[in-house]
Amino acid sequence: xxxxxxxxxxxxxxxxxxxxxxxxxxxxxxxxxxxxxxxxxxxxxxxxxxxxxxxxxxxxxxxxxxxxxxxxxxxxxxxxxxxxxxxxxxxxxxxxxxxxxxxxxxxxxxxxxxxxxxxxxxxxxxxxxxxxxxxxxxxxxxxxxxxxxxxxxxxxxxxxxxxxxxxxxxxxxxxxxxxxxxxxxxxxxxxxxxxxxxxxxxxxxxxxxxxxxxxxxxxxxxxxxxxxxxxxxxxxxxxxxxxxxxxxxxxxxxxxxxxxxxxxxxxxxx
Length: 270
Known about the structure:
It contains 8 helices and 11 strands. By secondary structure, the protein is an alpha+beta fold. It folds into 2 domains: 2-114 and 200-269, 2-Layer Sandwich (Nucleotidyltransferase, domain 5), CATH 3.30.420; 118-189, no CATH class. The strands form 4 sheets. It has a 5-stranded antiparallel β-sheet, with no helix packed on it. It is globular. 16% of the residues are buried.
């Protein structure tokens, strides 16, 4: 009991509300499977679409990817030395703030929106069924009514605008729309950036297939070499070194495949 009390104190003092007894730096990672999970590290990579070389990577103990997009994109741009960069990522990287940072930095993001709508899951109209009319600053609902701006609020430092109309109670589509008095639509002040990105994705759906063929290639190759085992070391410093060696080995073998050993040796020598 004394040991458990000490462990409880450590747990309460931890910012992440978790303690790893095997490796103090590791944390629980978010997994997509039901009742699955792993305590370890989160490896981020940026891979170029032309040659599948890892141009930037980072090891963190953050269990999700939502805050990694802009940082990894900036690392990739610095490593490649290009001015214009297009970054493609999966839904796990979707974050309005991160997408805005990319846009402001001159980086064009392609990140599909996460599907977390309670209305859609319940069989009701989703927010995407409401069309924003920019010139009027209003939304048009599936019934053709206009939702106007009524209230502005700040949530976690983000400016959110709320829209609704006053005829919902008599609308024949109300059961398909909302269980409340009226359907309210929230709009972030930078929502236009998200809408522009969604439009890019819809006009170029091939980008998502390219993402799967690009960033998954190095991960699968490295796992094939290592037998998909855990990291052999413990602690941030050692695990980051181990991953750097994996990346170096992968890139060298990839360059041998692309250039041949002789050209690679000559390129390194020059």
